[in-house]
Specification:
About 60% of the residues lie in helices and about 0% in strands. It is mostly helical. Helix 2 (about 20-30) crosses helix 4 (about 50-60). The protein starts with a helix and ends in a 13-residue tail after the last helix. The mean pLDDT is about 90.
Length: about 80
């Protein structure tokens, strides 16, 4: 799994957990719909730290809370 895949899965899980739509997340985070679609559909090869920060802010959590998930363990991520 790539970093982008892990971020997309974490976003999907948080959308369910927080019971919000992707549209609401886009509005709250300031990320444009096209950019979010690229992340969620795996068309984005890299996700920047600033994007992760914006997503976390959209969820109302810290970046540390966003990254504090087993999906981001070293053994799960492939580095190119």
């Amino acid at each position: 799994m790539t970093v982008n895949d892990a971020v997309a899965k974490r976003i999907a899980n948080l959308l369910i957990e927080k019971r919000i739509t992707q549209y609401r997340l886009e509005q709250d985070s300031g990320i444009q719909h096209g950019s979010m679609q690229c992340i969620m559909k795996g068309r984005n090869k890299t996700v920047t730290l600033s994007t992760i920060y914006m997503v976390a802010r959209g969820f109302g959590i810290s970046i540390l809370d966003f990254l504090n998930d087993p999906i981001f363990l070293n053994g799960n991520i492939e580095f190119e």
